[in-house]
Amino acid sequence: MELLKTSIGRLRIAGILEGLSLIVLMGFAMPMKYIWGDPSFVRMIGSIHGALFILFAIQLYLTAEEKNWKYKDLPLKLMISCFIPFGTFYLDHKILKKMEHSKV
């Protein structure tokens, strides 16, 4: 897979996985808990989402170090995107995809 060859590509993958896990957590697991009274999905998917969030944060740090990004700029925006539903998808589309293709 071509994306795995660069740090920005790995960051994009981590962001997409983190974003997908948030959608599954909010769109499936939370309704299962609050509508049908089954919290087991929140525990399971929440743990997966937490691990993917940590993976994204680590990859963001590694990419920022490699690219010499200033932490008050892009890395801060990328980290904030994790807390906004669909935020990682938006930043992937608007920023990271373009950076990956330009090899910045």
Summarize the structure.
The chain is 77% helix and 0% strand. With 104 residues, the chain is an all-alpha fold. The two termini are 19 Å apart.
Describe this structure in words.
This protein is mainly alpha-helical. The protein has one domain (10-102). Helices cover 77% and strands 0% of the residues. The chain has helices spanning 7-34, 40-67, 74-81, 87-102. Helix 1 (7-34) packs antiparallel against helix 2. The longest helix is centred in the N-terminal third of the chain and has 28 residues, at 7-34.
Q: Uncertain runs with pLDDT below 50, 5 residues or more?
A: none
Helices and strands, in order, run as HHHH
What Rg, in angstroms, do the CA atoms define? 15 Å
Mean pLDDT: 84
Q: What is the 3D form? A: elongated
End-to-end CA span: 19 Å
| Quaternary structure state of the chains depicted | single chain
SSE-based structural type? mainly alpha
Total of DSSP H or I helical runs spanning 4+ residues: 4
Helix percent band: over 70%
